[in-house]
Amino acid sequence: MPRKPATTSHDQNFKNLILDYPVQALELFSPEEAACLDDAVRILPLRQEQLKERLGDRFRELDVPLLAEWPDGRREALLFVLEEETNPKRFSIHRLAHYCLDLAELCQTERVVPVVIFLNTSGREPTDLYLGSERHTYLSFHYLRCALPELKAEDYWHSNNLIARLCLSLMSWTQSQKLEVYARATQGLTTLEPDPEKQLKYLDFIDIYSALDDNEMAQYQQQYPQETTTMASLSERLRAEGMEKGMERGLHQGVEGTLRKLIQLKFGHLPEWANDRLLQATDEQLDQWVTNILSAEQLEDLFGED
User: How many CB atoms are closer than 10 A to CB 225?
Assistant: First the structure.
């Protein structure tokens, strides 16, 4: 049976992708500026809550500001602003320029790189903004443009950039290449991402944008049995681990809750220090304290020396 993709917005999908793989995002979406990034750079996402207070209700759902810092001080920090546009008709270069100016003032920097990722494009989106008169230009603004449909998927079949592999279905390809697009994306995910949980997370991403129907999924499973078996096994293993962890967490919470009730019945109000001990307790400690409460004369005696 085909996997049922999660119903998540494009904004949230790409925000997760960029925050999980910021360096590879910059390398794919802004290769000119990413050329200056080296192993010493540290990339941090800025807190959007702070920006919302400054920009008000017009703040867009996805602008991902990433701050590239060199801890050794060899370069001044560089601020990347990545915006995803699903509908090119809604793109406003004036709004983007306004946002970048506000962000530059807020962060007290003039080193700002605006990047727009178009999931769809008409090819007519404005790329430059000039404000002025017939005498002078007083404001000149442009951004780095990455229109995924203008990239040929086959050029990225063997890319070591995980984001490129995950976004293959959003690039240009022929109908006859559709299953290979899915296969190349899945192969990239399993070979470039070692974390099984992230593999499963971004298999959903591939499913959403590949949108294979039942017949196409059946064909894929026939043509790529090894990849199908690998991902099915991974999915089942993580599902089983998740259920096991959930059961363990539920048991732990049950014992903790019972102990809280016994403490309150015997000693009255639960002080903050005791509450902290319970929140930090291991399974073994909770079991021991349940036994201790039978003989403890004071609350301090309950916890003993552990």
Answer: 10
Query: Cα separation of 143 and 61, whole Å?
Result: 19
Q: How far apart are CA 184 and CA 164, in angstroms?
A: 10
Mind listing the pLDDT tens digit for each residue in 202-239?
888 898 898 888 899 888 888 888 777 776 666 666 65
Backbone angles phi, psi at 145, to 5 degrees: -110, 125
Residue-range domain boundaries for the chain: 1-150, 250-303
C-alpha torsion angle, residues 126, 129, 133, 135 (rounded to 10): -110
Write the CA distances from 57 to 49, 51, 52, 61, integer angstroms. Answer: 12, 11, 7, 10
Task: Report whether pLDDT(194) > 50.
Answer: yes
| Measured distance CA(176)–CA(153) in Å, rounded | 12
The length of the chain is: 306
Whole-number Å distance between alpha carbons of 19 and 202: 13
Helix (H) or strand (E) holding 22: helix 22-29
pLDDT tens column, 48-105:
545 544 444 444 445 788 999 988 877 888 999 998 888 888 899 999 999 899 889 8
